[in-house]
């Protein structure tokens, strides 16, 4: 087994564009779940409307990319309002179920033959981010150290993606440490108490839902731009589950939680993938037990197991405090 | 003891001449309720024809379990909707307003089971309650210079209150680590941070040890002496007799009696309400309980 | 309240019998080519069948929610495991090659054991560690991922059908055609639902389940062994999920992610009926099944689940507490 390949694969994945996309989407989710206590299980729906908002504007209607970005962000606002209006006055579990249903409904609509003229149906849409790559200042070539290398195209995506993560992280840090953030964290603890102190809880929850949703949409656009393609089945409910996994891994309610979580999540996932593949090739694991085509399934099963173990033994994640977590046990 | 000491000094001459009968007019009412009703399914939980709460006084709301006291609190404070009726606060009609709007108008409540915010520190709990914070709006929140000054002022006020309620040394602890009694104190102190005109306290002494009860009583009377209007639900008659200036009694959702504390124990309607059955004697002997009311109460039972 | 409780089973029964009656009435009126009315009736019958299967699986999910307030995101996997376990016993070359009926019974028993094992082996230890409710939701996500992908490894990605009752010709009932298999599944589903209603209303354990749902502390104080009730609910939920899985695999197809797809429809049914109400879950699921099938009259088939989920969101806008839910007192 070639450990250097396994490690470099894992590192490339851990700092790669997908890790940035998931970190960003999880930051939105962190605002919902970690700070406001909103159980949004449909973050993938926001990513979808973001990615498709951009893709449809450019690829279907021939608009400029900047307009596409605006459409994507605006779609997230509309979706958040639609979801929040009926459910934010109800118990938390209603939001959980409605959001997961809404995310899946959106995916089904976008992939249907009925919507195909606009969304491209099951095939999705491609080649709508040329403007983005044209303004890249990075000269052609490959960049990297050791075995971890990226093409100039990827480097440009990486710079923009991680810069966006840093910017959003900064804004969120300012927000949650402000009086606004105090109200929102108080709502997470007990919204009835907050209402009794004269705060319009509904408006705060809605603001949080919109804001986190817009961040999710930005992540969806980034993902679409990165592969120059959107297809409905990349937005299945499992994505939200991964986001929760990495959020819990890093530490919910911590600004850097989603970032650390995402990097580690993709590092480990890629590490497992690479290591399993090599172990099978080298004959350490019998192909009877696990064939190479089953590696994907095995590593997702391990993600599930890891999530259960994490919740049992370290629910506060890497960055959280156990004492604080136990106080909030509801 | 502080309660007893405070009593003779209380400036309550206005209530002296008020007749001890349910729905009576008061000289300077802060909160006025008219025909407030609330039913759950077919069960009428509250049906109060008229109730006035005197400004600057401590009013106790008592009654047996299920009398509708907490429901009335919930309705008036905007946490539950009324099926009918109107109420005004400080001369303004406010019926049907939501909870946060009532709180902003100066009517702040506490809860029977304390609702401290566990993963916020004691100081954060306090600062949260301050009203009119610029940094609570989304865009200004992103620009700390816009709200830093105000935040310092709020923190100063919070520290003063924490000092007064003997919570200063716990200031940076998570509220979730406080004892039950400390939470009661924090909840009261937090309500005061909102600079209320009136506080509604739902069983402030429930589950609190005797020493702390005395301390809470002292705080409440002191607040009254500073001009705050207090209305509280309580079961312990000693507490009620000790500190209240006026007592309102509910039973079966209705207001059955009102009066200064010393008249309440002898009130026929109150005795009926607490004993939960109708007396058979045809003649009422009580000085205050009127025959009409007693019969009305009897119908409810 | 008494009337409300009776209302639901009656409504459910009406929903099932009314189409049959109208179907025979229509049968005499329309004798030509299948017009819109006939297609609508066919869709309605299909919808009831689909809804009844969702209802079987959703009742367990709803009972679990009612008793321990846990949204079990892994409930869909219990459905899949039931269906694939029966497939293993029935079809798989590695299995014993049983007839479907004993295989289904074994799958239901396995589902019950699995449900019980999840309660004893996972939730109870987690609760004992002081894990909060919301973290338990997240743990169910982990369990869902784990089980689903274990099934994918063991069962594979290829859809499969059971060895018996696979291809049948429909019997004509007027304008409505239904295969004996589908008819049997529908009737069995309705019988099972009525059986659950009887269990909840008439038996000691049913009364205990309802008592725990209404007020856990009070139930505990009045001498009900809450832990045992929770275990029974999990076993019942697991068994029903497995049965629903076999039924769904029978009328549709067995796949590794069938349960996960059904999960969202179960959620929709539960919310529609009012979170935590078992009868609400039954009524809501029937509505969801009917909406899904009836939508195909106007819209493409690939959108039928989407309309069902959309119905959920629309109902939340109009009547947030669901069809049969009640508002709660706050404060």
TrEMBL record, chain A:
The chain crosses the membrane at residues 12-31, 38-59, 65-85, 155-180, 201-225, 295-313. It is found in: Cell membrane. The keyword RNA-binding does not apply. CDD domains: TM_PBP1_LivM_like. It is a multi-pass membrane protein. The keyword Mitochondrion does not apply. InterPro entries: ABC_transp_permease, LivM-like. Keywords: Cell membrane, Membrane, Transmembrane, Transmembrane helix. This is Branched-chain amino acid ABC transporter permease. It comes from Streptomyces ficellus.
UniProtKB/TrEMBL annotation, chain B:
Keywords: ATP-binding, Nucleotide-binding, Transport. Residues 292-301 have a biased composition (Basic and acidic residues). It comes from the Bacteria. GO terms for molecular function: ATP binding. Pfam families: ABC_tran (PF00005), BCA_ABC_TP_C (PF12399). Residues 31-277 form the ABC transporter domain. Residues 1-21, 277-301 are annotated as: Disordered. PANTHER family: CONSERVED COMPONENT OF ABC TRANSPORTER FOR NATURAL AMINO ACIDS, CONSERVED COMPONENT OF ABC TRANSPORTER FOR NATURAL AMINO ACIDS-RELATED. This is ABC transporter ATP-binding protein. It comes from Streptomyces ficellus.
UniProtKB/TrEMBL annotation, chain C:
Residues 1-25 form the signal peptide. The chain crosses the membrane at residues 49-71, 78-95, 101-122, 134-155, 183-200, 229-247, 305-324. Its main location: membrane. It is found in: Cell membrane. InterPro entries: ABC_transp_permease, BCAA_transport_permease. This is Branched-chain amino acid ABC transporter permease. Keywords: Amino-acid transport, Cell inner membrane, Cell membrane, Membrane, Signal, Transmembrane, Transmembrane helix, Transport. It comes from Streptomyces ficellus.
């Amino acid at each position: 087994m070639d450990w250097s390949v396994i490690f470099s694969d894992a590192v490339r994945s851990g700092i790669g564009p997908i890790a940035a996309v998931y970190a960003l989407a999880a930051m939105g989710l962190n605002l919902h779940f970690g700070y406001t206590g909103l159980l949004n299980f449909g973050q993938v729906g926001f990513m979808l409307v973001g990615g498709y908002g951009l893709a449809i504007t450019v690829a279907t209607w021939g608009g400029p990319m900047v307009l596409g970005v605006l459409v994507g962000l605006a779609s997230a606002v509309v979706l958040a309002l639609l979801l929040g209006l009926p459910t934010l006055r109800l118990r938390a579990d209603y939001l959980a179920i409605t959001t997961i249903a809404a995310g899946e409904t959106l995916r089904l609509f976008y992939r249907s033959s009925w919507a195909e003229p606009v969304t491209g149906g099951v095939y999705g849409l491609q080649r709508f981010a040329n403007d983005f790559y044209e303004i890249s200042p990075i000269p052609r070539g490959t960049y990297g150290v050791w075995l971890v290398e990226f093409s100039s195209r990827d480097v440009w995506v990486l710079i923009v993606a991680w810069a966006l993560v840093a910017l959003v992280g900064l804004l969120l840090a300012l927000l949650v440490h402000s009086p606004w953030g105090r109200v929102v964290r108080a709502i997470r603890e007990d919204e009835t108490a907050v209402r009794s102190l004269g705060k319009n809880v509904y408006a705060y929850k809605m603001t949080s839902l919109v804001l986190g949703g817009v961040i999710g949409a930005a992540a969806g656009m980034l993902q679409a731009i990165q592969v120059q393609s959107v297809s409905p089945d990349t937005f299945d409910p499992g994505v939200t589950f991964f986001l929760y996994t990495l959020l819990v891994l890093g530490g919910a309610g911590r600004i850097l939680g989603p970032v650390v979580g995402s990097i580690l999540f993709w590092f480990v996932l890629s590490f497992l993938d690479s290591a399993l593949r090599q172990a099978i090739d080298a004959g350490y694991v019998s192909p009877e037990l696990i064939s190479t085509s089953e590696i994907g399934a095995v590593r997702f099963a391990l993600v599930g197991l890891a999530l259960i173990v994490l919740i049992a033994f370290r629910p506060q994640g890497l960055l959280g405090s156990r004492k604080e977590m136990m106080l909030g046990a509801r | 003891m502080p309660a007893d000491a405070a009593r003779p000094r209380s400036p309550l001459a206005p209530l002296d001449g008020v007749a001890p009968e349910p729905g009576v007019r008061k000289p300077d009412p802060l909160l006025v309720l008219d025909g407030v009703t609330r039913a759950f399914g077919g069960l009428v939980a509250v049906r109060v024809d008229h109730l006035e709460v005197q400004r600057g006084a401590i009013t106790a709301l008592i009654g047996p379990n299920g009398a509708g006291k907490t429901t009335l609190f919930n309705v008036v404070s905007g946490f539950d909707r009324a099926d009918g009726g109107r109420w005004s606060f400080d001369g303004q009609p406010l019926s049907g307003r939501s909870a946060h709007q009532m709180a902003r108008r100066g009517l702040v409540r506490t809860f029977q089971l304390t609702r401290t915010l566990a993963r916020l520190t004691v100081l954060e709990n306090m600062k949260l309650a301050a009203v009119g914070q610029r940094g609570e709006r989304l865009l200004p929140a992103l620009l700390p210079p816009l709200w830093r000054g105000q935040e310092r002022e709020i923190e100063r006020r919070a520290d003063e209150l924490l000092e007064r309620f003997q919570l200063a040394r716990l200031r940076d602890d998570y509220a979730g680590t406080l004892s039950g009694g400390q939470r009661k104190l924090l909840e009261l102190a937090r309500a005061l941070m909102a600079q209320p005109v009136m506080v509604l306290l739902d069983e402030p002494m429930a589950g609190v040890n005797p020493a702390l009860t005395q301390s809470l009583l002292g705080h409440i009377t002191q607040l009254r002496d500073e001009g705050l209007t207090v209305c509280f639900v309580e079961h312990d008659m000693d507490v009620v007799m000790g500190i209240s200036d006026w007592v309102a009694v509910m039973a079966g959702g209705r207001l059955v009696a009102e009066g200064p504390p010393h008249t309440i124990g002898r009130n026929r309607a109150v005795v009926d309400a607490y004993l939960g059955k109708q007396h058979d004697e045809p003649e009422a002997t009580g000085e205050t309980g009127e025959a009409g009311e007693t019969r009305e109460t009897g119908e409810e039972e | 309240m008494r009337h409300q409780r009776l209302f639901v089973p009656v409504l459910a029964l009406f929903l099932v019998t009314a189409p049959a009656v109208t179907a025979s009435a229509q049968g005499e009126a329309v004798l030509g080519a299948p017009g819109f009315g006939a297609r609508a009736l066919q869709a309605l019958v299909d919808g009831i069948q689909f809804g009844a299967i969702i209802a079987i699986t959703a009742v367990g999910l709803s009972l679990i929610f009612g008793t321990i307030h846990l949204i079990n995101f892994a409930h869909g996997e219990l459905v899949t495991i039931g269906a694939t376990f029966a497939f293993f016993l029935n079809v798989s070359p590695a299995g014993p090659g049983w007839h479907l009926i004993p295989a289904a019974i074994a799958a239901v028993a396995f589902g019950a054991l699995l449900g019980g094992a999840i309660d004893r082996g996972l939730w109870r230890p987690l609760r004992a560690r002081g894990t909060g409710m919301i973290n338990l939701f997240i743990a169910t996500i982990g369990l869902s991922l784990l089980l689903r992908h274990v099934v994918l490894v063991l069962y594979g990605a290829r859809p499969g059908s059971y060895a018996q009752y696979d291809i049948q010709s429909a019997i004509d009932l007027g304008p409505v055609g239904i295969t004996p298999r589908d008819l049997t599944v529908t009737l069995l589903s309705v019988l099972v639902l009525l059986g659950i209603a009887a269990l909840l209303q008439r038996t000691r354990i049913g009364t205990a389940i309802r008592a725990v749902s209404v007020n856990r502390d009070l139930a505990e104080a009045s001498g009900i062994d809450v832990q045992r009730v929770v275990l029974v609910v999990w076993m019942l939920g697991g068994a029903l999920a497995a049965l629903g899985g076999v039924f769904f695999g029978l009328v549709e197809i067995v796949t590794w992610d069938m349960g996960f797809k059904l999960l969202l429809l179960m959620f929709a049914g539960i919310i529609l009926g009012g979170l935590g109400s078992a009868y609400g879950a039954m009524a809501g699921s029937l509505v969801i099944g009917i909406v899904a099938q009836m939508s195909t009259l106007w819209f493409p088939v690939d959108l039928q689940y989407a309309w069902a989920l959309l119905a959920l969101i629309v109902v939340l806008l109009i009547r947030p507490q669901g069809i049969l839910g009640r508002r709660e007192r706050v404060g």
